[in-house]
Input
Amino acid sequence: QVQLVESGGGLVQPGGSLRLSCAASGFVLDNWAIGWFRQAPWKQREAVSCISGNDGSIYYLDSVKGRFNISRDNAKNTVYLQMNSLKPEDTAVYYCATSNWPSCSRYVGSFGSWGQGTQVTVSS
Output
């Protein structure tokens, strides 16, 4: 019923940019908080960014502030993550997820539906 599909990942050189997309079906995403998470090999999954469904509040991981931008297009039922000035340490599988509540959370357990992930590799 609820489905999220990420796209836009790939291989990019340090300093480059990528835009990730999270397309939703089976529900209207503007009612719920949508988070972007990433997981690198041998690392825990971490919250990268989140946009709330009630007041539009936006949150970012400290290490990506000033480089990443989250936005939503309600007409397309899609959330985006624009990633600029990419660094090798940004390399990970990136996932979007829908919270069980309108408000954002940094905790994986607060998000009930997940996409399949898209690989981002930053390397020269």
